[in-house]
TrEMBL record, chain A:
It comes from the Bacteria. Keywords: Amino-acid transport, ATP-binding, Nucleotide-binding, Transport. Gene3D superfamilies: P-loop containing nucleotide triphosphate hydrolases (3.40.50.300). InterPro entries: AAA+_ATPase (IPR003593), ABC_transporter-like_ATP-bd (IPR003439), BCAA_Transport_ATP-bd_LivF (IPR052156), P-loop_NTPase (IPR027417). This is ABC transporter ATP-binding protein. Belongs to the ABC transporter superfamily. SUPFAM superfamilies: P-loop containing nucleoside triphosphate hydrolases (SSF52540). Residues 5-238 form the ABC transporter domain. It comes from Mycoplana rhizolycopersici. GO terms for molecular function: ATP binding.
From TrEMBL, chain B:
This is Branched-chain amino acid ABC transporter permease. The lineage of its organism: Bacteria, Pseudomonadati, Pseudomonadota, Alphaproteobacteria, Hyphomicrobiales. CDD domains: TM_PBP1_LivH_like. The chain crosses the membrane at residues 6-30, 37-57, 63-84, 96-116, 142-161, 182-211, 223-247, 259-279. It holds the Pfam family BPD_transp_2. It is a multi-pass membrane protein. Keywords: Amino-acid transport, Cell membrane, Membrane, Transmembrane, Transmembrane helix, Transport. Its main location: membrane. Coiled coil: none annotated. It is found in: Cell membrane. Belongs to the binding-protein-dependent transport system permease family. LivHM subfamily.
Length: 242, 292
């Protein structure tokens, strides 16, 4: 299968600081759930930020459907069809659920089209429809994460990147989040997520990527990654996560 | 009882103008985290625009209001470009902006004093000294008109923030700047626009203030404390909060002024600021300040 997004050996860091990523690569295939795992501080979040244009890429390439994305601003990358939900979920706490969804389509410009899009999303997520006029900040963690994920769908992106969507959620709710991701991928939205809990992340994904010290260590079908002895070493023995 | 109602009405009548005076300050703080200490001095600049237009050409200050607002909005764009744009990325942004706006306040006062002297001024259209009578109770026309115009402007601002695309962008930037940027909001443009609107509101408030209060350049120091207490009580950045706080404090000040003594009326605001900061720094409608 041809790659949708190809990240080749990128180097990136914050401002003029040291390179946090050095030799990170990634192949994203359409319609699959990809899970990036790795110890704390490995550079997982940094990788997502580099892809979405929040950090300058010093070396290497990010290529979406044959087009180089290096140097584009976050809003330009969003227009290319890559949507990023950072770890903090990036909601507007004092805007209603509906207003948050409308912000998801801020770049669309056409108000009618935006309203249709928002309504379609509310139909698909009854819990959000129920709370459409409630402030986002008053919802539970799971509902907020659902909103953050649903909001990415407004612009019909090709790729949705999620940084630790399970953070701070009860196990049962985490399962719900994974079902939403699965549903998204079945509808043709490719998912790229970062997960702290390697076992749970890999079990719920198609493709696994292991990142350590800013470079890609292993990349392949999630089941293979799960069985890789290096995973055992990284997570169970040897160097402990910080 | 009649006196109670009379004082209540006088307090309410001033609440609207005070809310308008505070709304621009609140908006600028919400979007840019700038505590604009120069806001009252810019209100006074707007008041001079209305004063001279009336004095020289007999133009009604309410008619002059949009002009004062536009002139000040233009000054706002210039000030933003000159003073704040390059500070936006500075790690010491908050200290810098406090110092910059303080310096600006002094400079505006100096300039106004140089041009217009420190004589007390008040614009005097007929209605400024006239009143409606309801039995024993009187409603000063000037304050009533100023209050109504203020509420219309604040209402328009609220509708703009609630429904327009730029309004969405401004609210989103206020609540979560990084998230707004990620979703494609040009936060730099939002900052310029919000600053221009904020200073434009100072100009609009100035036109009304010019016939409600007497003013001179150094009057800004009294108003700074008054407006600070209003926006802090309202919850910095919340327009609705600013309105509620302005009316509450204005009414309280009116009662204090009548029953305790006129000098204590302004003290109400200073004391309120002090007490609010001690017991509820997030104000009525604001979020708890982050303890980092
Ligand atoms: N805003 C930042 N400025 C400077 N360094 C940062 C910043 N964010 C993260 N880092 C550094 O980058 C490294 C990788 O961080 P991160 O990508 O967040 O790791 P992970 O998501 O894998 O836990 C860490 O050493 C961290 O200290
Ligand atoms: Mg992280």
């Amino acid at each position: 299968m041809t790659a949708l997004l190809e990240v080749t050996n990128i180097t990136a860091g914050y401002g003029d600081g040291p390179a946090i990523l050095d030799g990170a690569h990634l192949t994203v295939v359409p319609g699959k759930v990809h899970c990036i795992i790795g110890p704390n501080g490995a550079g997982k979040s940094t990788l997502l930020k580099a892809i979405c244009g929040m950090l300058k890429i010093r070396k290497g390439d990010v290529v979406l459907k044959g087009e180089r994305l290096n140097g584009l601003r976050p809003d330009q990358i969003l227009r290319k069809g890559i949507c990023f939900v950072p770890q903090e979920r990036a909601l507007f706490p004092k805007m209603t659920v509906r207003e948050n969804l409308r912000m998801g389509g801020f770049i669309l410009g056409n108000a009618k089209e935006l309203d249709r899009s928002v309504d379609a999303i509310l139909d698909r997520f009854p819990i959000l429809r129920e709370r459409a006029n409630q402030h986002a900040g008053t919802m539970s963690g799971g509902q907020q994460q659902t909103l953050a994920m649903a909001r990415t769908l407004i612009i019909r992106p090709d790729i949705v990147m999620l940084d630790e969507p399970s953070l701070g959620l009860a196990p049962k709710i985490v399962q719900e989040m994974f079902s939403i991701m699965k549903m998204m991928s079945e509808e043709g939205v490719t998912v790229l997520l970062v997960e702290q809990n390697a076992l749970m992340g890999l079990k719920n994904s198609d493709i696994g990527v292991v990142l350590d010290l800013g470079r890609t260590l292993i990349e392949g079908p999630a089941a293979d990654v799960l069985a890789d002895p290096r995973i055992q070493e990284l997570y169970l023995g040897g160097r402990k996560a910080a | 009882m009649a006196q109670f109602i009379q004082v209540l009405i006088l307090g309410l009548a001033l609440g609207g103008v005070i809310a308008l005076m505070g709304s621009g300050l609140s908006l600028v703080f919400g979007v840019m985290r700038i505590v604009n200490l120069a806001h009252p001095s810019l209100i006074i600049a707007g008041a001079y625009v209305a004063y001279w237009a009336f004095k020289l050409w007999g133009i009604d200050p309410i008619v002059m209001l949009p002009v004062a607002a536009l002139i000040l909005a233009g000054i706002g764009v210039l000030l933003y470009r000159l003073m704040f744009e390059k500070e936006a990325k500075s790690a010491r942004y908050s200290e810098m902006t406090v110092l910059l706006t303080f310096a600006l306040a002094m400079m505006v006062e100096g300039l106004l004093g140089a041009f217009f002297t420190n004589t007390q001024r008040v614009t005097s259209p007929d209605y400024a000294t006239d009143a409606f009578f309801l039995g024993d109770i009187f409603i000063p026309k000037g304050q009533l008109y100023a209050g109504i115009v203020s509420l219309v402007i604040i209402g328009a601002l609220a509708l703009f923030l609630k429904y327009s695309r730029m309004g969405y962008a401004i609210r989103a930037t206020t609540q979560n700047r990084d998230a707004a940027e990620l979703l494609g909001v040009n936060v730099n443009l939002v900052s310029v626009v919000a600053f221009a609107i904020g200073i434009g509101l100072a100009g609009a408030a100035g036109a009304l203030v010019s016939f409600v209060f007497s003013f001179f350049p150094a009057k800004q120091w009294e108003w700074i404390a008054m407006l600070m207490s209003v926006v802090v009580l309202g919850g910095m950045g919340s327009i609705l909060g600013t309105v509620v706080a302005a009316f509450s404090l204005s009414v309280i000040a009116a009662f204090v002024g009548t029953w305790v003594g006129a000098t204590w009326s302004t003290m109400t605001f200073f004391l309120a600021l002090f007490v609010i900061l001690l017991i509820r720094p997030e104000g009525l409608f604001g979020e708890k300040p982050e303890m980092a």
